[in-house]
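Ticket #4471: structure export looks truncated?
Reporter: QA, pipeline team
Priority: medium

Steps to reproduce: submit the single chain below to the structure queue and open the exported record.
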Amino acid sequence: MNYEPVIGLEIHAELNTLNKMFCGCKNDPLEHHPNVNICPVCMAHPGTLPVINRDAIEKVIRVGLALGGDISPHSQFDRKNYFYPDLPKGYQISQYKYPIVAGGNLRGVRITRVHLEEDTGRLQHVENTMGLELSLGRPATLVDYNRAGVPLMELVTEPDLRSAADARVFAEELHDVLRYVNASDADMEKGQMRIEANISIRPVGSIEFGTKVEVKNINSFRAAERAILYEIERQKDVLESGGTVSQETRGWDDAGQKTVSQRSKESAHDYRYFPEPDLPPLNLTKEGGFDIEAIRSSLPELPQAKRTRFEKQYVLPSKIVSFLVSDKHLADYFEQASSELLEWVSNSNLETLPGRQAGGRPSMLIQLLANYMSSDLQALLVAKSASIIEMRITPENLAELIKMIYKNELSSRAAKNVLARMFADGSDPSTVVEEGNLRQVSDSNALEDVVQKIIQENSKPVEDYKKGKDVALQVLVGKVMKETKGAANPEVVRGVLTRILRGV
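Actual output as written to the record:
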């Protein structure tokens, strides 16, 4: 029997506020000294009262508006009751009936709701503590509450996804949106964005949903795709063997590349939701201090709109556009460097440039810039685990380097060396070129003496070329390049060699 997967996602993202959700503690869940960013409020000491973080509310509103959702004029927090060692209160302050955002759409997938809650602490399972063996030699579990109380946004989709690949694309797009609207850094490796997938299968053509299984502990887009693929096949095997799929929560075992059963799936009534008595309802209107239209007008150009514009305005391949737009700072940097290049084109007489056709110069320059940013420059950033905003190369200096490459003033090898020096210390490309005597020689008259010298000293490849062995010409080009220490333009060298050897 053929089955169709039905997939919905629940995605959590830690908001990048300065403070925690209901207290003044620093929002720094990556602090590696345990239990330093805590206070009586987030540790739920008796007599303490939570206070709502307004910035967190506004960040969720920004996400909701970016997704085309409706901002509820009335919202409230609820208590979600369950016990777990990383919950200092013994319950979680979350939202249930009245989320901040209802509806919305991203890449054709309907958004059910976006709500706000507090994150839990973090458990660390250890064999021993501070070098001392624990009683009976049994493993122990330590609790770090630095993350407890961090504002956590949860987005829930409708079950509109039909493949693991589509689920991955959706999550990646949401990741970009979160960063564009400055709601979350959304770094999955750091746990700032977590994906849970609700997966069921049904016979193709059926309108009834199958039994839903929730898969947790997914910490990368690649893992999300693999977890969903595995779970689809697992459920197929269960049904085809005559079994019944159980409604449960399963975890993704990345090492074993499989899902593993954790517990039976809870229902909403198991959590005994009721309105949080220590927090007032939210009035998300102008009268309540939230100007929704002003927030909407402050939103930046979003990833999908930027991709469409880049493809049309800069005439770039979709793959390179996707790379540039994946990071708002990277896209902004590209546009600043592009602006420098386009201004140069408009003020320059480019007809004198060798080897360039009359049409399409702006697009050729922009293509060259995009290629360097997506290859050589990206390789330098990855090697240093750095982001574009940490880089020392200014957009103006990168544009200057691209001009030099375009004008054949640098060989490709020299350009790589110049870029590496610029990346290391922020040097101006002209300074690096002059200090290293790296400017490429493209004047054929200036190269003739060197070419004649190489011809006189290498009679064997000269004779081979005259006998029709074209590969011998490349040997001579290489010797000229070595003689000039890479400064000669290889295409010009090839032309001079051909002219002299043919007696033209």
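Status: closed, not a bug. The export was complete when the record was re-opened. Leaving a note from the reviewer for reference: The longest helix spans residues 221-240.
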